Every structure is written in structure tokens, then in C-alpha cells.
Amino acid sequence: MAAEGKPDAQLFQLLSGILQQVEALTNEEEVELRSKIEALGLEVTKLPSKSTHHLNELEIAKELDKLSAKLDDVDEMISSAMAADPQVKSLLSGTADVWMPVITANADERRNFTSSTADDSPEVKGKSFN
Q1: From what superkingdom does this record's organism come (predicted)?
Q2: What is the rounded distance in angstroms from the CA atom of residue 24 to the CA atom of residue 19?
Q3: Which pTM does this prediction carry?
Q4: Shortest CA distance to 8 belongs to which of 115, 128, 114?
Q5: Which one is predicted more confidently, 103 or 5?
Q6: How many Å apart are CA 99 and CA 93, to the nearest integer?
Q7: Which of 12, 52, 72, 90 lies most in the core, judged by the most C-beta atoms within 10 Å?
Q8: How far apart are CA 22 and CA 30, in angstroms?
Q9: Three-class SS string for 68-102?
Q10: Which residues contact 40 (CB under 8 A, 6 or more apart)?
């Protein structure tokens, strides 16, 4: 990846910059979208609990089914947005190097995102919001 810094910070700086552009162009505050981005940020950076409770195979299967259903919903939303608007497809393709590492990270990689030192630069190098 060409950009430096924590991948999750890069993603949310990119999203924030895009949101600011949208707000500037429309001259309207996007409160709902901003709250969804914040909720997504919390979800992405959430660390799995180190539970002492071990799931049996049936419980694991149920959890996997739930996660699979969520992924299907997200896939449907992304696919319909891309089909409806070529700019969405272009934006997602052009920024995949920022968001793909965050959404595909495993638990260890997420721990690394959140445990990186505070002096990491959250700047997205090479990306322009103007």
C-alpha cells in the first residue's frame, strides 16, 4: 500500500474528506451519513473479546450464518449503488487500496491498527479531496 499510517485511520480520513466535499457542494449538513460513518468506524475498530466461553460447533455455525447474512446485505447495497451510479463504482475502485485492508483485516491485524503509536500520521498520502 502506498499510503502510510494506520489503515483504519486512512479510511475514515478519506470518508470524512469525501463527506466534507459533499456537504460543501450541497451546502447541507449530512448528519445521518456522518453518524453512519462514525458507527462504521466503531465497528471496524472493535476488538474481538477474549472470552473464556468456548463456542460449540452449533453456536459457531449460527454466528457464521449471522455474519454471512450481514455480508450479503452489504454486498447487495454496494452492488446496487455501483449499478445505479458509475461515480460510485469509480470512487470505490479508485480508493480500494484504502478501504480493502480495513474491511478484510483479521483480529490480529485489527489489534495492530489500534495498538499503533499515537504519532502515526493519519494522512492519506497521494489522495486529494479537492
Answers
A1: Eukaryota
A2: 9
A3: 0.44
A4: 114
A5: 103
A6: 10
A7: 12
A8: 8
A9: HHHHHHHHHHHHHHHHHCHHHHHHHHHCHHHHHHH
A10: none
Distance in angstroms between the alpha carbons of the first and the last residue of the chain: 22
Q: How far is CA 17 from CA 12, 20, 118, in A?
A: 8, 5, 21
The distance from CA 105 to its chain's CA centroid, rounded to whole angstroms, is 10
Cα–Cα distance between 98 and 124 in angstroms, integer?
8
Task: Give CA–CA dist 82/90, Å, rounded.
Answer: 8
Amino acid at 122: P
The C-alpha cell at 3 is 499510503
Residue with cell 466503531: 42
Q: For residue 111, what are the CA distances in angstroms to 54, 71, 102?
A: 21, 22, 12
Question: What pLDDT digit, counting tens, does each position of 98-129 carry?
Answer: 877 877 777 777 777 665 534 444 444 444 44
